[in-house]
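call fold(seq) -> tokens
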Amino acid sequence: MEDLFKGRFVRLAGVDPEEVSKTFAQWNRDSEYKRLLDTDPTRLHSIKATKDWLEKHIQEEPENTYWFAVRALEDDRLLGDIDLAVINWGSRDAFLGIGIGERAFWDKGYGSDALGVMLQYAFLELNLRRVSLNVFEYNQRAVRSYEKAGFKLEGREPQFVPREGRRYDVLHTGLLREEWMEENGNKTNTK
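ret:
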């Protein structure tokens, strides 16, 4: 494995509250981006408020959370973030979350690459047994990306998310280490 935190298009890096607060405040003004990630109504926050929240969040972050900035290899631009929250070390289970905030990088493989790097980290470095994630049924771009990475539908919460006068399901998906290893074991480091 050449570089644990580097894929074909992106690398995972530490989160810098100063930089991320400016970028998050900008991305949070994009209502489509927010609707793809969050069930709460979109709220606008200043850069200062976002920075204060981030600093507090990082300081209070449990040791079982691994949160990274997603950066483009070509120019080191901040594209988004990805995190892994280990919910049970005994069973080695974790939840994953990812967001690519820069629209110019949507549908170009950056999110899939970041997901692949994080799964490699989860299964090979942390030796997790299972990674789960939830996705809103209307986020078909993400659904396809997760399926491509090997995630399988395990359940749904019907009509959980209210959007535009109707309600949508939340899809619960999961990926087991042995399934990921069968597909990726000989191709680590996504290069």
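The chain has a mean pLDDT of 87.
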